[in-house]
Design a protein that fits this description.
This protein has a single domain, classed as Tyrosine recombinase, N-terminal domain (DNA polymerase, domain 1). The chain is an all-alpha fold and 101 residues long. The radius of gyration is 13 Å and the shape is globular. InterPro entries: DNA_brk_join_enz, Integrase_recombinase_N. Keywords: DNA-binding. This is Phage integrase SAM-like domain-containing protein.
Length: 101
């Protein structure tokens, strides 16, 4: 079920479940900003489509218009959601998320 879910939708559900109320409001607003960027950069990417190359293309596209530290923050947020997807069995192998480490 989740494997066919769009990555940005999974990220949105994940951030509202795990981060809303658990982090400061200013930090949560940064997650919202990352979500908006992910929607623009990868609107059709499904969790099942994610591999190292696809993930790196997302990061590269984001980096075109953002500073290195902002890009690293974006990466850390996306990576955290993908690590949870791995733990939950939504992503079956680490090979799907190796570029996230």
């Amino acid at each position: 079920m989740y494997k066919n879910q769009l990555f940005y939708r999974y990220f949105a559900e994940w951030m509202y479940l795990y981060k809303n109320g658990a982090v400061r409001p200013i930090t949560f607003s940064k997650y919202k900003t990352s979500l908006q960027s992910l929607k623009i950069i990868a609107p059709k990417v499904k969790l099942s489509d994610l591999d190292r190359q696809t993930y790196q293309k997302i990061l590269n596209e984001y980096a075109k218009n953002h500073e290195k530290q902002t890009t690293m923050d974006f990466h850390r947020q996306l990576r955290a959601s993908l690590e949870d997807a791995l733990d939950e069995g939504i992503i079956n192998t680490r090979s799907n998320t190796k570029s996230c480490s």
